Amino acid sequence: MDIFGIIIQTLGGLGLFILGMKMMTEGLQATAGQKIRRILEAISSNRFMGCATGAGVTAMIQSSSATTVMLIGFATAGIISLEQAVGVVIGANIGTTITGQMIAFKLTAAALPAIALGVVLKYFSKKRNYRRIGDIILGFGLLFYGMTVMKNGLAPIKSDPQFIEFFTTFRTDNLGGILLCVLMGTVLTVAVQSSSATVGLTMTLATSGLLTYPTALALVLGENIGTTVTAQLSTIGSNNIEAHRTANAHTIFNVIGVGIILMIFPWFVDMVQILTLKLGAGALTHTVDGEYVNVSRYIANGHTIFNVINALVFLIFLPKLVQLTILLSPKPSLSKERYKLPEFDSGFIDSPIGALAKVKGEIIKMLEFTHMNLKKTSICLKVRDDDILGEREAIEDHLDESQKVIIRYLTTIYQGEVNEPEAKEISEYMRITNNIERLGDSMENVSKILERIYDNDFVFSEQAKQDLVTISEQVDIFLGLILDEFQEKSDGFYQKALAKEDLIDHMRENMRYQHIERLRAGDCSVDVGVFFIALVSNYEKMGDYCFNIATGVNRII
Questions:
Q1: Rounded Cα distance, 154 and 396, in Å
Q2: At 10, which helix (H) or strand (E)?
Q3: What is the pTM of this model?
């Protein structure tokens, strides 16, 4: 027997399976990416709706790991709460079992036609959408062709005594054997970074008769633990507490769920067998050409039933799961650095949806910082405050550096695999970030002008002072409107933004006209008037920058 050839063919088949799985997932994400983002951003606080959302999204993209990484991005950005994220993670575990169900239906006859059609669409189509559909179909074909290659690779060892003896060490007639199977399933999934791939391999081994049905189910339980490692890897290097908590919740949920099933494992095995027979599957022991042709249905159903039971239990006790997660996760730092620059994790680069969610969160923080300091700067229109005026360079430097960090990260995302809507979103985020930085420039100008006014003991007329306060309040309201829209979409936002920009423009013209009238009447000196016009112009520019930001927000939210 050619052992080397068997190993190469089996690993090659597994490689084709993983490649197909990855290609199909990326194609599905690229095709439905914006829909997925909007679905996840609109997650209900109702835990059962959140679970249904997680199951639906994961069924769409065929990867619970991808869904979890996206959720970590949203939780890190502050777009969803930890409890909402955990509810969706629970649902994602159900959604990921769809892959196993697909494999169990043995669509291998469609593998080569799917590969042929996928290649034509992916490499010969001029339309981007068709190329993405080609990715999905080609991935589907490679996945099932990989299963065929694995099955053929394992065929020679089915009757070899040494291999049979090796596989019989994985038995489930005692607790130690069950735990060994769970551990092996976990290690395999960690190694290949895909629970769907290890479930597929388990089905192939069971179909070949190398694994018994109970052993395969025990391996699948371990594979559910192993799949949580991807989420843990995406938080490495992150200081964000929400990211760690979301990943930890995924791990805790699966580990405890497996522990519960292990306590009733023999009854669980029997229950899956009875339910599968009731659903119309053939006998577990039925063989064709030496293969157990029905065992994949039993394994797929066991995978699904485990995750459904697990979800129902933990949805009832979701608050307790969240409390346990918080207890076992790193404690948040109490100190808050005022000039803390945006932080991005490389783990999100492979998930543009999660990465862009993180960018959105950091831009919101940058905008909040700008809004807070605009309010403080405008206070100095009424009364001098050297502490506020003295901070202008630190504020401007912080906004400049934040802009560079965000633009650099957006460029990194853009250099990866992004679809057309994501590319547009990246462009708009760059536009928004640049305009926030320009807001900082105008704030610094206002601060410098006010310092010169106070140093020279210049005094505005009451009308001039009131005009400046009024236009600064409108810019403040405009920024607040944008922040509200960034966090929750509202109807008629663009029209409100356009009206606000027009109002600030009209204010500038009216204030200039009234200033000229005051000069004629001798109510205002020329020196003071120059500073007044400069201040009005800077606030009007801020209105323009706010409108540019609002336009970008309207296009992507």
A1: 65
A2: helix 3-41
A3: 0.74
